[in-house]
Amino acid sequence: MVLTYERFTIQCLNIVKGIMQCAEFKLPKGTEQVKEPLILQGHQMKTEVLDQNTVCHMCRHLVTHYFLLSSDDLALWDAEPESFATDEAGESWKYSLRPCTEAVFMELFH
């Protein structure tokens, strides 16, 4: 599958990942009650938007549209499996589609 707007897709995935990682939308650990109403409201909105059906749909879409392997990918995987699993250290996930997709996919499970 050829993406016409690959850079746009990467930016959209980065925005989604940023929303999911936003500290203001997470409840602090170890506290029974949060006294800040904005934190509660942010967490509630995130929970409503990212309900189980939405997360399942996002995962399914990422797997079926962005994790697809090209014939070159399959040939590299067959010839050199260790080389295929490259170390995506640093911030390459911000600029490359595959690492960005992987980062969003992993963030959906946190």
UniProtKB/TrEMBL annotation:
PANTHER family for this protein: IMPORTIN-11, IMPORTIN-7, 8, 11
GO terms classed as biological process: protein import into nucleus
Single GO cellular component term: cytosol
Organism, scientific name: Pararge aegeria (speckled wood butterfly)
This protein's name: Importin-11
InterPro entries associated with the record: ARM-like
Transmembrane segments: none
Gene3D superfamilies for the chain: Leucine-rich Repeat Variant (1.25.10.10)
